[in-house]
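User: Run a structure prediction on this.
Assistant: Running it now.
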Amino acid sequence: MVQKILTAAVVALVVASGAASAATITKNGTTANTNTASFAIGDDLTFTDALSPNDGISLYSFTFTATQRAVVSFIALAATGVSSGADIKNIRFGYNSPPSQSFSTPIVLPGGSAFATGSLMSFTINKGSSFSVYFSEVQQLLKTVGVTGSFTVAAVPIPATLPIFASALGLLGLARRRRSSQV
């Protein structure tokens, strides 16, 4: 039963990714047909595209711009396909172009549907700065591969020792002031 549900879910992802004609970004539940978006602290973003054979495109990208200094969480990635995982093995992803990271070994389901996962490291980004996530084909695809990524945006944490350090500096200044007034 679990196998049938998993198979149905992967098939639905593959069909949905194959039906999509353009890149989409979903931010906080709102979807737009675009490959660029801005973000702020607290945003949840998901991006999706269908990498199609014979579309003349070999490098796909999504670009995101920070509206404030923030931490971008690990970016979780997934790829789905119908060629028993062969096409998924031909996809690379990363923050740089050309991307060099590969998806995990595809898990092939009965009927030839397959899926694989990947991730990109978290990082801090400054206000007004942008970053891109790239996908590329190492070899010509035989069938469409759907790619999806998602991440959340958090505030840059203040180190726990910073308030203690500031208090110590204040006390040091106060002690020095008392000493100079006694002389």
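Helices lie at 2-19, 161-182.
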